Amino acid sequence: MKNSLIEENIKKINLAIEKIIDGLAEIFNVLKITETDEYSELRDMFIIKRRFIEVFDMFLSIFHHLVELKFLRYKEDEKKQSEEVLSLDLFKEMCDKLKNEVFN
């Protein structure tokens, strides 16, 4: 279950990175072919601003997924620690029972 969540988050991060690269490529293409007409410049600047917002949104999305991955790893480590404590308690209990059987 957790591995699938981790894989899903990694896929989302990769998709966000691809969108960032596409957005930056479009921004650079628009900047490269910008015409001198005022209307075209305004249109191009609007496109560039929109793409920058989309790129920034993708960075926030990546940050969100990285935080989620860290949380999943923390929960997994916490579960392992509780299992280790439980197994240590069971071991002590078994030793006590064995000791009682042998000496009684």
UniProtKB/TrEMBL annotation:
Domain of life, source organism: Eukaryota
Protein name, per record: Uncharacterized protein
Naturally occurring in which organism (per UniProt): Hamiltosporidium tvaerminnensis
